[in-house]
Design a protein that fits this description.
- There is one protein chain.
- By secondary structure, the protein is of the alpha/beta class.
- It folds into two domains: about 150 residues, 3-Layer(aba) Sandwich (Isopropylmalate Dehydrogenase), CATH 3.40.718; about 150 residues, Isopropylmalate Dehydrogenase (3-Layer(aba) Sandwich), CATH 3.40.718.10.
- About 50% of the residues lie in helices and about 15% in strands.
- It has 13 helices and eleven strands.
- It has an eleven-stranded mixed beta sheet, with helices on both faces.
- Helix 3 packs across helix 5, helix 4 packs parallel to helix 5 and helix 9 runs antiparallel to helix 10.
Length: about 325
């Protein structure tokens, strides 16, 4: 049975919505959840549900992390914080995955320092499905790495290819760099320096793509630094929510309220992937980790736990290690 460690104190609606979502996930998906947080708090929430026959266990962690606390300081001074204790369960083999809606910087730093990264990767990357309009396209990095070098982007591409192969069932995913023009030589220095590295990698590299190509699904794996990626994600989420509100006003009196709600909710689902998948995977660490929006509620936690289970069962981490070895050999042979 897959075991998912859940930081019960991470997020704006913790622990109520976290635990509600965790209970639903265990009921629906046939897995074990390990809730991490202050035991009295966890127990007070669990009594609201009939969990007598559910695989739900609790681990005590007396501290939590507040938004704005420096991750390095948290790792040094709050060693009993719920996110750190939950991550250590994965490191020690007591859980198969970690999920947290706590501050992103701390979640990433905990995974990096405690789980470590495969040989050849020094930075984990946040990525995954980007838009419902292009379900076979993933974009990464989505915010974990603001300043990058060309070899970082190549690592992101490798991680993205393994994700596409294992979770999207795409045997030979196409790879592209996000730029301001499709032609070789277009883009900033990072993109231009990365281009020849991608060409020698042995990946199915198709060149540069532009922002409008994301929606059409021109490439399966689209790579950019976290500065650009995070702006893209937040823009799409904000645009979808704004258009959904506009539709409700514009269609009022022309369609039934039920139809209006259906159309606006469909639009939100297509533009807000966090609501569909419950969060984004933190890829490139020695374990399965999910980083969730702080505003996530019960349904998002249920979906994120289900996605974590799928990632564990796919053997994603082992596949990534094998692919890294292959790419390093390809690049080495290309220099000879």
């Amino acid at each position: 049975m897959v075991r998912i460690a859940v930081d019960a104190m991470g997020g704006d609606y913790a622990p109520n919505e976290v635990i509600k979502g965790a209970v639903s996930a265990v009921q629906e998906k046939g897995l074990e959840v390990i809730l991490v947080g202050p035991l009295p708090t966890l127990q007070a929430e669990l009594v609201k549900y009939d969990v007598s026959h559910l695989a739900i266990n609790c681990i005590n962690a007396d501290e939590s992390v507040k938004e704005g606390e420096p991750p390095a300081l948290v790792l040094r001074q709050k060693r009993n914080a719920s996110v750190i204790v939950a991550t250590k369960l994965v490191k020690n083999g007591e859980a198969d995955a970690i999920i947290s809606a706590g501050p992103t910087g701390t979640v990433v730093a905990s995974a990096l320092m405690i789980l470590g990264t495969p040989e050849g990767i020094d930075r984990p990357v946040i990525g995954g499905n980007f838009l419902g309009f292009s379900p076979n396209t993933i974009v990464l990095d989505n915010g974990g790495n603001v300043d990058c070098k060309p070899y970082h982007l190549l690592n992101f591409a490798i991680v993205g290819c393994v994700y596409a192969q294992k979770l999207l069932n795409i045997p030979n995913p196409t790879v592209a760099l996000l730029s301001v023009g499709a032609e070789e030589g277009k883009g900033n220095e990072l993109v231009k320096e990365s281009y020849p590295l991608f060409q020698r990698s042995g990946l199915n590299f198709i060149g540069n793509v532009e922002g409008n190509d994301i929606v059409t699904g021109r490439a399966n794996v689209i790579v950019c630094d976290g500065f650009v990626g995070n702006i893209l994600v937040k823009f799409c989420e904000g645009l979808g929510a704004t258009i959904a509100k506009w539709l409700k006003t514009s269609l009022s009196g022309k369609l039934s309220n039920t139809e209006i709600d259906r159309v606006s909710n469909d639009l939100l689902a297509l533009t807000n992937t966090a609501d569909i998948f419950g969060g984004g995977p933190l890829l490139g660490v020695n374990g399965v980790a999910m980083v969730m929006h702080g505003r996530s509620q019960a349904l998002q936690f249920t979906r994120a736990i289900a996605q974590a289970k799928t990632m564990v069962e796919s053997g994603l981490v082992n596949s990534l290690n094998s692919e890294l070895i292959r790419i390093r050999r390809q690049l080495h042979n290309g220099k000879d």
